[in-house]
Amino acid sequence: QEALLKHSSIQTFKHLNTRVIHRADLEYTELLGSGTSGDVYKGFYKDKEVAIKVLNGERSDEFQHEFTILK
Q1: I need a labelling partner for 8 at 20 to 30 A (CA). Which of 16, 38, 43, 62 fits?
Q2: Measured between alpha carbons, how far apart are the two ends of the chain, in Å?
Q3: What pTM was estimated for this model as a whole?
Q4: Could you tell me the CA-to-CA distances from 33 to 20, 47, 49 in Å, in that order?
Q5: pLDDT above 80 for 41
């Protein structure tokens, strides 16, 4: 599962052993849903179909918790 982290959040998530994927490497195809922490899109990364979560920046603590559960 791929995670998209905003540059301002890199330090926040550094301890979760993640990698940063740049927006230019992603192709967004469809909005799947929206929630309090951001939007989720269907898309492609290096020819693989992925879910892309775009954070709204205000709920990084909730995303950290969610990411830890999914990891």
Answers
A1: 43
A2: 9
A3: 0.59
A4: 22, 22, 16
A5: yes
